[in-house]
Amino acid sequence: MRTEVGIVGAGPAGLVLAHLLHLRGIDSVVLEARGREYVERRIRAGVLEQGTVDLLDEMGVGERLRREGLVHEGIELQFGGERHRIDFPSLTGGRAITVYGQQEVVKDLIAARIETGRPLLFEVGDVTVNGVETDAPSIGFVHDGERGELRCEFVAGCDGYHGVCRESIPAGVLTEFSREYPFGWLGILAEAPPSNDELIYCYHERGFALHSMRSPTLTRLYLQCRPDEDLDEWPDDRIWDELERRFALEGWMLNRGEIVEKGVTGMRSFVVEPMQFGRLFLAGDAAHIVPPTGAKGLNLAVADVRILADALAAWFEHGDESRLAGYSAEVLRRIWRAEHFSWWMTSMLHRLEGGDAFDVKLQLAQLAYVASSPRAAASLAENYVGLERV
Ligand code: FAD
Ligand code: DHB
Predict the structure, then answer these.
(1) Whole-angstrom distance, CA of residue 381 vs CA of residue 372
(2) CA-CA distance, 299 to 373, in Å (whole number)?
(3) Is the CB–ligand 1 distance for residue 10 below 6 Å?
(4) 306-347: per-residue pLDDT in tens?
(5) For the whole model, what pTM was predicted?
(6) Rounded distance, CA 99 to CA 66, Å?
(7) Which atom of ligand 1 is closest in space to residue 163's alpha carbon?
(8) Which of 81, 82, 284, 290 has its CB 3.0 to 4.6 Å from that of 301, i.e. a possible disulfide?
(9) 3-class SS at 178?
């Protein structure tokens, strides 16, 4: 098998890259370890920045997103028994975010890929990345019980944090930067109408809580918990009681419903530099992880491949190597901005293990500043909706 770009992973990074390349007339093969059903059902992120929505639209895959996505012009911060709205359009020159599940984005991208007739292989095993330090890289894999080899000009490692591409780079090439947080999020999806028009980021002495949604009948909620929290200790009633306690506000009620999905996510910050080794380019979670508090993970993955697609097109169309050579430095500017924002939101909103009364006072002072100063609020808002330039 031969192609121009071999793409490992059919998450948002791999699928957006494949479609951007297709639109430039560049051929690719996408190899995905899981089955189609699995990747289309995997519930993860939900907040799309304005720039992500605009790109999906320009790519011709934004039709359902425009129809079903929920446009939000603000978020609420809750602390000290009050809610404070951060208004995005007035603070960012008219920008907003859209709530639309990651698995819906993935469904739309898979449908678009299949329509192009270009290859997307599911349930691919034993992926190995070879010869990326030469002009003739290849990807070994097993599909339908048969061993295959994909020869290509470039390999895009879009295979997420646990993928094989980053691991295939020899020791000593990459520098890792990371931070583990001593907490996680217990997330649920419930068949209940959202209890509030806006997302609520809630600071509480018992721990952080987040109210989000997926549709007018589906609520997405998160609770700060231990990173290794045992879900068996969390029967549905306990989850609802804990959410109610943290979101409690005079005259407000949390809608309950059947919990249709439950999971615990650990939280970490992680970056590798550079994001290239020879003809292998890493993008998305394969190269960086943010804690979810700033809703940046999916958006960063899309921002990476937008630049990678342009750089690859410059090479294929004009033989220009400079964009590829500059890829890593260019995307790392946005990545580190998002790393800082996500760390800052996480530190401001979570109960800190081992923290003392002084830490609590500092967090409350910071929250009060963001809620009361238009300049502080604008900093949160412009990062949240996504900076146009970094
Ligand atoms: P992924 O979506 O991870 O896609 C990588 C793909 O590669 C996967 O389909 C995987 O199956 C495939 N793959 C892996 N190994 C191989 C291999 N060897 N061969 C072939 N294919 C392979 N972000 C937020 O902003 N908010 C959230 O609430 C949020 N919740 C999350 C919850 C969880 C459990 C996780 C894991 C992430 C969450 N994120 C969240 C982060 C966000 O979902 C990611 O940043 C986003 O999915 C990154 O896209 P990606 O394409 O880079 O990686
Ligand atoms: C959602 C996830 C986030 O990480 C976030 O900051 C906001 C919303 C969500 O899943 O809806």
Answers:
(1) 13
(2) 27
(3) yes
(4) 999 999 999 999 999 999 999 999 999 999 999 999 999 999
(5) 0.97
(6) 10
(7) 15
(8) 284
(9) strand
